[in-house]
Amino acid sequence: MKRKYRDEFVKFTFLIPALLFFSLVVLIPFFRGLNIAFTNWDGIADHYKYVGFHNLVQLFKDNDVLPPLKNTLFFALVTTFFVNVFGLLLAVLLDVKFKGVNVLKTVIFMPMVISLVLAAIIWQYVYSDIFPILFHTNGGLLGSPSTVMWGLAIICIWKETGLAMVIYFAGLQTIPKDMYESARIDGASSTQQFFKITIPLLMPAFTYCIPLWLGTGLRQFDYSVVATKGGPGRASETMAMYVYNYEFPYFKAGYGQMAALVLFVMILIITVIVTQFLRRREVEY
């Protein structure tokens, strides 16, 4: 028994550096921010006072929070849907043996390794110089309040579909090929095989990918900052940018922390519900 506990303790010691690092960069800042959310701190002063739930009440009364919330939900839903759909379709299409398939996979994955700044510069050029020629429009998608979120979503989809493709492709390799052979013998079409075999047996990959991109979209900050700086006007401002603006330019750290806390709770609830929903639909084979 003593040896068992000793072995378990030795194993636990290997986790201590990671736990310490996690505590320093995540847990301690989180609980300090949780404390600040109930104060009127401006982010600079040495002293502040507790205001209870005043910041929360003001947040729910603030009509200016609705556009960033709408933009956040739009970006999260659009990017989650198209990144996963395109990633899955590309994985299925490239799950064949032909000369150059690995090169093609590399080309599709390449945008994922490009820096976000470079991706923004590339698409700013595409939107401003190429789109008007192809579609006979005045200006690019990023210059209009009605289309800017679509423009940002397209950049995200282009950049991150390759990663989704790799994950789904790895999932496809775990599906026994004899299941498809048995289905073909029974007369199942390619479409029936896809929906009756591929989709159900890929549910673990869906359980990973969908919450991943949903959570990423709900805390979207970098695409708006790099590509549009929240403009035109505030048309591409997201909840993460809303939090940032109150934390720094507006010097209302207490209010900003409360908005961040509400955003965290919203993301946690949504991702947990979606994850549990998908996990219950996983099948064993």
TrEMBL record:
Keywords for the protein's UniProt record, in alphabetical order: Cell membrane, Membrane, Transmembrane, Transmembrane helix, Transport
Localization, UniProt: Cell membrane
InterPro entries on file: ABC_transporter_permease, MetI-like, MetI-like_sf
Superkingdom to which the source organism belongs: Bacteria
One Pfam entry name: BPD_transp_1
TM ranges: 12-31, 73-94, 106-127, 147-172, 193-214, 258-278
Membrane topology: Multi-pass membrane protein
Coiled coil: none
All copies of domain ABC transmembrane type-1, residue ranges: 69-274
PANTHER family: ABC TRANSPORTER PERMEASE PROTEIN, INNER MEMBRANE ABC TRANSPORTER PERMEASE PROTEIN YCJO
Family: Belongs to the binding-protein-dependent transport system permease family.
Name this protein carries in UniProt: Melibiose/raffinose/stachyose import permease protein MelD
Lineage of origin: Bacteria, Bacillati, Bacillota, Bacilli, Bacillales
